[in-house]
Amino acid sequence: MNLRSPATARSEFSTQPVPLAKDKKHEKKKGKRKRKNRLWSLVTNVPELSILIMLIVGAYMLMGVFSKVESTEVLSASSIWLIIVGSFLISTAIATLAVIGGIGGGVIFTPIMLGFTSLDSLVIRATGLVVAMFSGLVSTGPFMKTKLADIKLTFYCGVPITVGALVGSVSAIYLHKGLGDFGDGLVRLSLGILMLVVAWFLFTGGGKTEYPEPKRIDRLSVLLGLNGFYWEESLGKVVHYQLTRAFVGGIVFIALGFIGGFFGLGGGAFLTATLNLIMMAPVKIAAACSGVLLAISNATAIWTYITYGAMIAIFAAPWMLGQVVGGILGAHLLIRIRAGFVRKVLIIILVVSSMKLIVRGVEEAFGINIPIL
Amino acid sequence: MKEDRPKPPLAGLIYGEIVYWGVLAGSLIVIVGSVLAFLGDNFVPVSYWVSSIWKGETVYQTWKGATGALPNGHWYLSHLTTGDGLSALGISLGVFSVVPALFLSAAALFKEKEWLYGALAMVGGIVVVIGVLGLAPMPK
Questions:
Q1: Cα-to-chain-centroid distance, residue A26
Q2: Contact across the interface for B70 and A309, Cβ inside 8 Å
Q3: In terms of residue numbers, what domain contains A139?
């Protein structure tokens, strides 16, 4: 089998120059065929995704053609349909970006909506949880099948993170009710600062290590039997790992659950960093477990918003569908896309939205007018 | 010696499959609900929901204008023939899939004599159920 790249082949046979344009065309064709094959394998391997996409497209066409929605003084009937379809498309894009960038979709949705729109902050946070959660929920199945999501680690961290998420979501409702605009200002300001930290994490890579080796293993981790193994595709062998700092990790997960439930975002970057840097899980295990934990914690927090009435179903529905489609697409198809470029895009989005959030937060909370952004 | 790929634990498979198919079932209901909302009956008109959110009204103002008060509970369960009711049910079903997934996964762990992790899965499930039932104290 010839494993040489076209570039190497060209340099070896320099006496017989290969026409570059032809070579490029050939590569392009090859790439197209590869993408076509990948798409086709997605259609055959995940038929439910194709059915879901067809149903969604059909449904939106029906809704557009036979709509009985009436215009209001604020919006026309066609713009209401456009908002719904646009939300679905943006949500699909966010889910795809989030999967490639390795962060939750809520980290993109919530800061942008809180920073740049005048929608009610509780509605945004409730919808943000939908956005943060559903791509994580659908990716749970594949993660569990490949054993990348460690069931012991997930259930150990699942308890503190769900408790934190429940307390965080209830606190959000109390703050909104009790402090009004001042509370919303504080939420925007603190979220803006938090997003700068997430951007910094993405920029530096969070200092993550592929296969961390704990220097000291605490008694609790040994008692809990927090160790495991998984198949490392890149090495072609089984990798064993031992986790540590179970107690500290548990405390940090309460705080992370609170942040997710309070702000209506997942914060997958923080979860991955905690599992990798504090508990010493290999980076792949940390990333897979953080997706599953994100879904569990948000599934706890969102009920507070649902029962309070903050999740407006008609508005949240297209965001949910977009996350499901984008989540499956991202997990199966786009895993090979260069994450570096996507990370840069995410960092820019996060920095700009955090600046806007800080400015709006200061304006709302302290009544100071800052004439920028 | 050639190593074999490790098999995933049963509890993990159960958890993953229930959540995956629960979310897809929820998505189907959301699609039907969205179509019904645009073409048929609604608990509250779609145009009102979207316009109110677009105007930046608070959750309280939105519900007050629609029904007179905040729902404080699972309002959609008594409006399952309406578009917005079905859409809310679909989203809730997708989220709720975590609950049976956690409990059945716990059962699988108990069967494998993993008592501690079975119990942790149960505790996690109970915390989610507290959220589902709205048992956490909320402001009036």
A1: 36
A2: yes
A3: 35-58+78-366
